[in-house]
Amino acid sequence: MVRILLLRIALIVAASAVLAQPADAQRRGRRANRSSAPAKPRAEVGGHFGYNFDFDQTVVGAQIALPFGKSIEFYPSADYYTGSGSPDWAVNADLRLRPPRVSQAWYMGGGVNLLFSGSDNQTNANVFGGLESREGAIRPYFELRWIIGDGTALQLVGGLNFGMK
Fold first, then answer.
1. Largest alpha-carbon pair distance within the chain?
2. Which of 13, 36, 71, 157 reaches 20 to 30 Å from 139, CA-CA?
3. Strand, coil or helix: what is 59?
4. CB neighbours of 144 closer than 8 A, spacing ≥ 6?
5. pTM of this prediction?
6. What's the CATH number for 2-163?
7. pLDDT tens digits for 144-154?
8. Where in the chain are the domains?
9. What pLDDT shows up at residue 24?
10. pLDDT tens-digit map of 42-66
11. With 90 as the cut, is the pLDDT of residue 12 above it?
């Protein structure tokens, strides 16, 4: 029941983001500001909460984004899974890419996932995609992550990132 509800929410958020178009005033503002220098990417730190569909568990975690340039970031994160019967925690070492667009709200990436549960540790690959607000110091986001390997799983998280100066 919870799994279906979260999947529906994820599809609605994704569809809304894909179908959203900038308002006329936003387009005019972009044309007027073209002469200004582009904002330098800033490091971010944040937290998230979500659900892992395959483990049937909630997940809480934290992440940091360290930009290498305008479109690529080192994106390590850690997750703690609640309840019994699932891995206790996981660490991800990823690269996050932003498409070369003005808003750069969409991102995607991949990397290595390490699942830890007592003495049973697993190394997996993961791929993910998400949508993050790029305005302001506090940036809400949603992310769908697919962990591929012995611990194959799909998880949806949402959270807040805080821009660092």
1. 58
2. 36
3. strand
4. 10, 128, 129, 130, 154, 155, 156
5. 0.74
6. 2.40.160.20
7. 999 999 768 99
8. 2-163
9. 47
10. 899 999 999 999 888 999 999 999 9
11. no
Residue with tokens 């305005």: 135
Residue 51 near residue 149 (C-beta atoms within 8 A): no
Phi-psi region of 56 (alpha: psi -120 to 50; beta: other; left: phi over 0): left
Q: How far is CA 85 from CA 25, 79, 82, 120, in A?
A: 51, 15, 9, 12
**Quick check: 61 and 47 in contact, CB under 8 A?**
yes
User: What SS3 class is residue 101?
Assistant: coil
Copy the structure tokens of residue 139: 């940036």
pLDDT of residue 34: 52
Q: What mean pLDDT value characterizes the chain? A: 81
What is the rounded distance in angstroms from the CA atom of residue 99 to the CA atom of residue 7? Answer: 25
- 3-class DSSP state of 60: strand
Number of other CB atoms surrounding residue 9 within 10 Å: 14
